[in-house]
Amino acid sequence: MQATATTLDNAQDTVPVNSRNKVVVASLIGTAIEFFDFYIYATAAVIVFPHIFFPQGDPAAATLQSLATFAIAFIARPIGSAVFGHFGDRVGRKATLVASLLTMGISTRGYRPAARL
């Protein structure tokens, strides 16, 4: 009876350090952009949204209504991340990112009221 020794290829088992750093940097950039976007949305909810989306009526009520849209967005973020995270794992991150961006773009463009330009 003879025994043969075989070695495993270590290159397949280990994750390169560069890819880990790349993931960390990409996550940092994505999170920074997301928080900046949410900050801009919060600022617009106070300054711009009451005049564009709720022009009739009391200005204080219009501001409260625009802040309510901000609150809905604040609540919907974790739900959306769970749903799109699931689809990102199942379908693929690139297709899910495209679907997410299309959903945001279509819903933003579709709700814009007829304003005087």
TrEMBL record:
Keywords: Cell membrane, Membrane, Transmembrane, Transmembrane helix, Transport. SUPFAM superfamilies: MFS general substrate transporter. The chain crosses the membrane at residues 66-87. Pfam families: Sugar_tr (PF00083). PROSITE patterns: MFS. GO terms for cellular component: plasma membrane. The keyword Transmembrane applies. GO terms for molecular function: transmembrane transporter activity. This is Inner membrane metabolite transport protein YhjE. It is a multi-pass membrane protein. It comes from Klebsiella michiganensis. It comes from the Bacteria. Residues 23-117 form the Major facilitator superfamily (MFS) profile domain. It is found in: Cell membrane.
